[in-house]
Amino acid sequence: MIELTLIGIGTGNPGHLTLQAIAAMNAAELILIPLKGADRSDLAGLRRTMCETHITNPETKVVEFALPVRDAANPSYRQGVDDWHDAIAAAWQDEIRAHVGDSGKVALLVWGDPSLYDSTLRLAERLARVMPVMTRVIPGITAIQALCAAHAIPLNEIGAPVQITTGRQLRDHGWPEGVDTIVVMLDGECSFTHLAPEGIEIWWGAFVGMSEQILRAGPLSEVGPQIVRTRAVARAEHGWIMDIYLMRRR
């Protein structure tokens, strides 16, 4: 059986690694690092640096592999994602069989935490359909935690609910009913621009927790245009961007 460990590594800050994560890395026989193309080589580089810094077990092998690319032209978003996940699970299977066979300890370093807007657990389910797999998760610091810490703000108001959503949901459906605080992830289009900004405050962060961290906060009517410009410049400079924001209605 394959013992598959999904290790949350935080948001790119090497200090986010927990002692539990480091122990799990050293217990693995094989650690797989996905390569997402030249424009996202920083992501693989950060994982590689974590391995070089913290792995002391000489028997732990670190292997990089090309991550399949999602077909953005597929008219069905969900079908495109399903096909993409099938391809990634197949790539995992190929690498695992090539390096440890059908029995061994394998780990993947997962950005943030595997439980929050990440598909690694779903990929593990797909892998388990074609080979015997036992999955365990090492929790990591999420982008939400890192954002709130960077701005020194609480996630929630006293006794009040919070909704975590995506840019696509915000664009298609507007502000969710029944909540005054929302956290928006996976937003490549600054979807807050689709809202009437009056009475809304925003706390935005890109590369949160990393040395490149950028923060903006204030009334959405004032800060929103700044965020749009800042995000475009940062993405052009780095070739990629990871950002997240919290908004609260007053």
Describe this structure in words.
The protein has seven helices and ten strands. The chain is of the alpha/beta class and 250 residues long. Residues 4-223 form the Tetrapyrrole methylase domain. This is Precorrin-6A synthase [deacetylating].
Overall radius of gyration: 19 Å
The residue-averaged pLDDT reads 95
Tell me the total number of β-strands: 10
What class, by secondary structure content?
alpha/beta
Tell me the major beta sheet: 5 strands, parallel
How large is the count of helical segments? 7
Distance between the termini: 53 Å
- Please give the order of strands in the largest beta sheet: 3-2-4-1-5
- Outline type: globular
Query: What percent of residues are in strands?
Result: 15-25%
Spell out the helices and strands N to C.
EHEHEHEHEHEHEEEHE
Helix content: 25-40%
Q: Which ranges are low-confidence, i.e. pLDDT below 50, for 5 or more consecutive residues?
A: none
InterPro entries: 4pyrrol_Mease, 4pyrrol_Methylase_sf, 4pyrrole_Mease_sub1, 4pyrrole_Mease_sub2, CobF
EC number: 2.1.1.152
Catalytic activity: precorrin-5 + S-adenosyl-L-methionine + H2O = precorrin-6A + acetate + S-adenosyl-L-homocysteine + 2 H(+)
Domain Tetrapyrrole methylase: 4-223
